[in-house]
Amino acid sequence: MGMSAAVYAAAAVPGAPAAYPGGAVSGISGGKYLTGRSGAAQIYGQFSSLAVSAGELKASGASNDSAIKNIELSKTPVAVSPLPASPINASGPSDSAAFTRHETDYARTDPKYFTLNPASIQVTRLAEAEEDFSYLNGVRTDLGVVQVLLDQVINIGAKLWDIIKQNAPVVNVSTSYAVAVPQGITEWNQLSGWKKPKSYTYVFSARNFYGAKVVDVRYKVIFTYGGAYKGKGQYLTGVTMIPSTTNVSWGYRFSLAAKVPDSTIVNTGTDSDPVAAMQLNAVWQIATTLKENNGTSVYYIQGDGYFEEL
Predict the structure, then answer these.
(1) Burial 282-305 (b: 16+ CB within 10 A, else e)
(2) How far apart are CA 204 and CA 278, in angstroms?
(3) Is 135 helix (H, G, I), strand (E, B) or coil?
(4) For residue range 55-73, what is the model confidence (pLDDT) as tens digits?
Protein backbone atom coordinates (compact mmCIF):
# COMPACT_ATOMS: atom_id res chain seq x y z
CA MET A 1 0.00 0.00 0.00
CA GLY A 2 1.93 3.04 -1.22
CA MET A 3 1.43 6.45 0.42
CA SER A 4 3.03 9.76 -0.38
CA ALA A 5 1.02 12.20 1.73
CA ALA A 6 2.10 13.27 5.18
CA VAL A 7 0.46 11.19 7.89
CA TYR A 8 0.44 11.14 11.67
CA ALA A 9 2.14 8.41 13.65
CA ALA A 10 3.43 7.66 17.14
CA ALA A 11 3.10 4.41 19.04
CA ALA A 12 5.00 2.92 21.95
CA VAL A 13 5.95 -0.70 21.30
CA PRO A 14 6.63 -3.05 24.26
CA GLY A 15 10.33 -3.84 24.46
CA ALA A 16 11.30 -0.98 22.17
CA PRO A 17 13.47 1.99 23.18
CA ALA A 18 11.56 4.59 25.14
CA ALA A 19 13.15 7.77 23.78
CA TYR A 20 14.37 9.05 20.46
CA PRO A 21 15.36 12.36 18.95
CA GLY A 22 12.99 13.65 16.30
CA GLY A 23 12.64 11.42 13.28
CA ALA A 24 10.33 10.01 10.68
CA VAL A 25 8.69 6.71 9.99
CA SER A 26 10.86 4.74 7.58
CA GLY A 27 8.01 3.45 5.49
CA ILE A 28 5.14 1.12 4.81
CA SER A 29 5.27 -1.83 2.46
CA GLY A 30 2.55 -3.65 0.60
CA GLY A 31 2.95 -6.28 3.32
CA LYS A 32 1.50 -3.79 5.82
CA TYR A 33 4.80 -3.36 7.59
CA LEU A 34 5.57 -0.21 9.50
CA THR A 35 8.79 0.67 11.22
CA GLY A 36 10.58 3.76 12.36
CA ARG A 37 10.53 6.67 14.75
CA SER A 38 8.21 9.52 15.47
CA GLY A 39 8.85 12.02 18.20
CA ALA A 40 9.59 9.98 21.33
CA ALA A 41 8.38 6.56 20.26
CA GLN A 42 9.15 3.69 17.97
CA ILE A 43 6.80 1.89 15.63
CA TYR A 44 7.40 -1.50 14.11
CA GLY A 45 5.37 -4.59 13.38
CA GLN A 46 3.28 -6.45 10.88
CA PHE A 47 -0.37 -5.45 11.11
CA SER A 48 -3.64 -6.79 9.78
CA SER A 49 -4.63 -3.34 8.58
CA LEU A 50 -3.12 0.07 7.98
CA ALA A 51 -5.20 3.01 6.86
CA VAL A 52 -5.10 6.79 6.58
CA SER A 53 -8.21 8.60 7.70
CA ALA A 54 -8.68 12.34 8.31
CA GLY A 55 -4.93 12.88 8.23
CA GLU A 56 -4.18 10.09 10.73
CA LEU A 57 -2.47 6.77 10.18
CA LYS A 58 -4.18 3.96 12.08
CA ALA A 59 -2.86 0.43 12.55
CA SER A 60 -4.68 -2.52 14.05
CA GLY A 61 -4.07 -6.22 14.55
CA ALA A 62 -0.95 -7.85 15.92
CA SER A 63 2.59 -8.33 14.74
CA ASN A 64 5.00 -11.03 15.82
CA ASP A 65 4.84 -9.30 19.21
CA SER A 66 1.36 -10.24 20.43
CA ALA A 67 1.34 -7.23 22.76
CA ILE A 68 0.96 -4.86 19.81
CA LYS A 69 -2.79 -4.60 19.30
CA ASN A 70 -5.16 -1.91 18.08
CA ILE A 71 -2.57 0.82 18.01
CA GLU A 72 -4.00 4.33 17.76
CA LEU A 73 -1.46 6.71 16.30
CA SER A 74 -1.13 10.29 17.53
CA LYS A 75 -1.01 13.50 15.54
CA THR A 76 2.68 13.96 14.95
CA PRO A 77 3.39 14.64 11.26
CA VAL A 78 5.83 12.24 9.65
CA ALA A 79 6.85 11.30 6.12
CA VAL A 80 6.24 7.85 4.68
CA SER A 81 8.20 6.13 1.93
CA PRO A 82 7.98 2.58 0.53
CA LEU A 83 9.87 -0.29 2.18
CA PRO A 84 10.67 -3.81 0.97
CA ALA A 85 8.43 -6.60 2.22
CA SER A 86 8.49 -7.12 5.98
CA PRO A 87 11.38 -9.21 7.34
CA ILE A 88 9.07 -10.43 10.12
CA ASN A 89 7.62 -13.88 9.53
CA ALA A 90 4.35 -14.15 11.43
CA SER A 91 4.48 -17.96 11.35
CA GLY A 92 7.92 -18.27 12.94
CA PRO A 93 10.97 -16.47 14.33
CA SER A 94 12.01 -13.24 12.66
CA ASP A 95 15.32 -14.76 11.78
CA SER A 96 17.57 -15.98 9.03
CA ALA A 97 21.19 -17.02 8.70
CA ALA A 98 22.11 -13.40 7.87
CA PHE A 99 20.73 -10.07 8.96
CA THR A 100 18.23 -8.36 6.70
CA ARG A 101 19.09 -5.17 4.87
CA HIS A 102 16.48 -3.36 6.92
CA GLU A 103 18.09 -4.49 10.20
CA THR A 104 21.50 -3.38 8.97
CA ASP A 105 20.24 0.01 7.83
CA TYR A 106 18.22 0.65 10.97
CA ALA A 107 21.14 -0.26 13.25
CA ARG A 108 23.07 2.68 11.86
CA THR A 109 20.36 5.08 13.03
CA ASP A 110 19.86 3.53 16.46
CA PRO A 111 22.98 1.66 17.69
CA LYS A 112 21.78 1.75 21.31
CA TYR A 113 18.86 -0.53 20.52
CA PHE A 114 21.15 -2.99 18.70
CA THR A 115 23.87 -3.06 21.38
CA LEU A 116 23.62 -5.53 24.24
CA ASN A 117 24.48 -4.38 27.75
CA PRO A 118 26.88 -7.11 28.98
CA ALA A 119 26.12 -6.25 32.62
CA SER A 120 22.47 -7.17 32.06
CA ILE A 121 23.09 -10.82 31.14
CA GLN A 122 21.62 -13.15 33.78
CA VAL A 123 21.30 -16.92 34.02
CA THR A 124 18.99 -17.82 36.90
CA ARG A 125 17.90 -21.23 38.20
CA LEU A 126 14.13 -21.40 38.58
CA ALA A 127 13.27 -24.97 39.56
CA GLU A 128 14.44 -28.53 40.19
CA ALA A 129 12.28 -31.51 39.24
CA GLU A 130 12.14 -35.24 38.53
CA GLU A 131 11.33 -36.27 34.96
CA ASP A 132 10.32 -39.50 33.24
CA PHE A 133 12.47 -41.62 30.92
CA SER A 134 10.53 -40.79 27.75
CA TYR A 135 13.23 -38.47 26.35
CA LEU A 136 15.75 -41.33 26.11
CA ASN A 137 16.13 -43.74 23.22
CA GLY A 138 18.35 -46.74 22.54
CA VAL A 139 17.98 -50.38 21.62
CA ARG A 140 19.35 -52.86 24.11
CA THR A 141 21.96 -55.09 22.47
CA ASP A 142 23.80 -58.15 23.73
CA LEU A 143 27.32 -57.27 24.80
CA GLY A 144 28.57 -60.72 23.88
CA VAL A 145 32.12 -61.47 24.90
CA VAL A 146 33.66 -58.09 25.58
CA GLN A 147 35.87 -56.66 28.28
CA VAL A 148 34.17 -53.93 30.31
CA LEU A 149 36.58 -51.63 32.16
CA LEU A 150 34.57 -50.22 35.06
CA ASP A 151 37.05 -47.50 35.99
CA GLN A 152 37.59 -46.25 32.42
CA VAL A 153 34.69 -43.82 31.90
CA ILE A 154 33.99 -42.69 28.34
CA ASN A 155 31.33 -40.67 26.52
CA ILE A 156 29.59 -42.82 23.89
CA GLY A 157 27.02 -40.10 23.15
CA ALA A 158 27.12 -36.62 21.63
CA LYS A 159 29.99 -34.21 22.30
CA LEU A 160 28.79 -31.02 20.59
CA TRP A 161 25.24 -30.26 19.45
CA ASP A 162 22.90 -27.32 18.87
CA ILE A 163 20.07 -26.51 21.27
CA ILE A 164 18.86 -23.21 19.78
CA LYS A 165 20.12 -21.94 16.42
CA GLN A 166 19.38 -18.40 15.26
CA ASN A 167 16.39 -18.09 17.66
CA ALA A 168 14.85 -21.48 16.74
CA PRO A 169 14.98 -24.62 18.96
CA VAL A 170 16.66 -27.38 16.95
CA VAL A 171 17.71 -30.02 19.46
CA ASN A 172 16.49 -33.57 18.99
CA VAL A 173 16.62 -34.81 22.57
CA SER A 174 15.96 -38.42 21.54
CA THR A 175 19.39 -38.55 19.87
CA SER A 176 21.41 -35.59 21.14
CA TYR A 177 22.80 -36.20 24.61
CA ALA A 178 26.00 -37.24 26.34
CA VAL A 179 26.50 -40.65 28.00
CA ALA A 180 29.24 -41.50 30.54
CA VAL A 181 29.60 -45.29 30.88
CA PRO A 182 32.43 -47.79 31.36
CA GLN A 183 34.63 -48.59 28.39
CA GLY A 184 33.26 -51.58 26.50
CA ILE A 185 29.60 -50.57 26.87
CA THR A 186 27.92 -49.70 23.57
CA GLU A 187 24.41 -48.70 24.73
CA TRP A 188 23.42 -46.92 27.94
CA ASN A 189 20.64 -49.45 28.61
CA GLN A 190 23.16 -52.27 28.90
CA LEU A 191 23.43 -50.90 32.43
CA SER A 192 20.70 -51.23 35.06
CA GLY A 193 19.45 -49.49 38.19
CA TRP A 194 18.92 -46.09 36.57
CA LYS A 195 17.31 -43.44 38.80
CA LYS A 196 14.56 -41.11 37.59
CA PRO A 197 15.94 -38.22 35.53
CA LYS A 198 16.61 -34.90 37.23
CA SER A 199 16.06 -31.52 35.60
CA TYR A 200 17.01 -27.96 36.49
CA THR A 201 15.16 -25.10 34.78
CA TYR A 202 17.05 -21.90 33.94
CA VAL A 203 16.09 -18.54 32.47
CA PHE A 204 18.62 -16.66 30.35
CA SER A 205 17.89 -12.96 29.92
CA ALA A 206 19.66 -9.92 28.50
CA ARG A 207 18.82 -6.26 27.84
CA ASN A 208 20.04 -3.62 25.44
CA PHE A 209 21.33 -0.20 26.44
CA TYR A 210 17.79 1.20 26.61
CA GLY A 211 17.07 -1.35 29.34
CA ALA A 212 14.65 -3.27 27.11
CA LYS A 213 14.73 -7.05 27.49
CA VAL A 214 15.86 -8.43 24.13
CA VAL A 215 16.51 -12.08 25.07
CA ASP A 216 14.30 -14.17 27.35
CA VAL A 217 14.99 -17.91 27.02
CA ARG A 218 14.12 -20.84 29.29
CA TYR A 219 15.77 -24.23 29.12
CA LYS A 220 16.19 -27.37 31.21
CA VAL A 221 19.43 -29.13 32.07
CA ILE A 222 18.39 -32.77 32.33
CA PHE A 223 20.24 -36.01 33.07
CA THR A 224 19.66 -39.61 34.16
CA TYR A 225 22.00 -41.07 36.74
CA GLY A 226 22.81 -44.11 38.87
CA GLY A 227 23.17 -46.77 36.17
CA ALA A 228 25.36 -49.73 37.23
CA TYR A 229 27.13 -52.60 35.49
CA LYS A 230 26.51 -55.84 37.36
CA GLY A 231 25.77 -53.83 40.48
CA LYS A 232 28.98 -51.79 40.28
CA GLY A 233 29.44 -48.09 39.60
CA GLN A 234 27.18 -45.09 39.09
CA TYR A 235 27.08 -43.76 35.55
CA LEU A 236 25.28 -41.11 33.48
CA THR A 237 23.06 -40.99 30.41
CA GLY A 238 20.74 -38.49 28.72
CA VAL A 239 22.83 -35.48 29.71
CA THR A 240 21.48 -32.59 27.65
CA MET A 241 19.55 -29.31 27.58
CA ILE A 242 15.95 -28.92 26.43
CA PRO A 243 14.65 -25.49 25.33
CA SER A 244 11.29 -24.52 26.85
CA THR A 245 10.58 -21.00 25.55
CA THR A 246 12.52 -18.69 23.26
CA ASN A 247 11.65 -14.98 23.07
CA VAL A 248 14.13 -12.84 21.15
CA SER A 249 13.54 -9.27 19.96
CA TRP A 250 13.62 -8.24 16.34
CA GLY A 251 17.16 -7.50 15.19
CA TYR A 252 18.74 -10.01 17.58
CA ARG A 253 19.98 -13.58 17.03
CA PHE A 254 20.37 -16.01 19.93
CA SER A 255 22.08 -19.39 19.66
CA LEU A 256 22.81 -22.00 22.33
CA ALA A 257 24.89 -25.16 21.98
CA ALA A 258 25.85 -27.99 24.33
CA LYS A 259 29.44 -29.17 24.58
CA VAL A 260 30.93 -31.98 26.65
CA PRO A 261 34.75 -31.99 26.40
CA ASP A 262 36.36 -35.43 26.65
CA SER A 263 38.77 -34.02 29.23
CA THR A 264 35.86 -33.54 31.67
CA ILE A 265 34.74 -37.21 31.60
CA VAL A 266 36.24 -38.65 34.77
CA ASN A 267 35.81 -41.27 37.47
CA THR A 268 35.37 -39.58 40.85
CA GLY A 269 34.90 -42.90 42.67
CA THR A 270 37.22 -45.87 43.10
CA ASP A 271 38.52 -48.42 40.60
CA SER A 272 36.09 -51.05 41.91
CA ASP A 273 33.09 -48.75 42.44
CA PRO A 274 33.35 -45.85 39.99
CA VAL A 275 31.26 -42.67 39.96
CA ALA A 276 31.17 -41.05 36.53
CA ALA A 277 31.29 -37.27 36.18
CA MET A 278 31.26 -34.74 33.36
CA GLN A 279 30.95 -31.04 32.62
CA LEU A 280 28.13 -29.86 30.36
CA ASN A 281 29.01 -26.51 28.79
CA ALA A 282 26.15 -24.27 27.64
CA VAL A 283 27.80 -22.16 24.94
CA TRP A 284 25.71 -19.12 23.95
CA GLN A 285 25.91 -16.30 21.45
CA ILE A 286 23.85 -13.12 21.12
CA ALA A 287 24.41 -11.22 17.88
CA THR A 288 23.16 -8.11 16.15
CA THR A 289 24.36 -6.54 12.95
CA LEU A 290 26.68 -4.41 15.11
CA LYS A 291 28.18 -6.79 17.66
CA GLU A 292 28.44 -10.36 18.97
CA ASN A 293 28.48 -11.37 22.63
CA ASN A 294 29.62 -14.86 23.59
CA GLY A 295 29.77 -16.80 26.82
CA THR A 296 29.56 -20.19 28.50
CA SER A 297 27.70 -21.56 31.51
CA VAL A 298 29.20 -24.73 33.00
CA TYR A 299 27.27 -27.48 34.79
CA TYR A 300 29.04 -30.25 36.69
CA ILE A 301 27.15 -33.57 36.94
CA GLN A 302 27.97 -36.83 38.73
CA GLY A 303 26.63 -40.36 38.42
CA ASP A 304 25.33 -40.28 41.99
CA GLY A 305 23.00 -37.37 41.11
CA TYR A 306 25.17 -34.53 42.33
CA PHE A 307 24.73 -31.30 40.31
CA GLU A 308 26.56 -27.99 40.56
CA GLU A 309 26.91 -24.78 38.54
CA LEU A 310 30.57 -23.86 38.14
Answers:
(1) bbbbbbbbbeebeeebebebbbbe
(2) 22
(3) helix
(4) 444 544 433 333 333 333 3
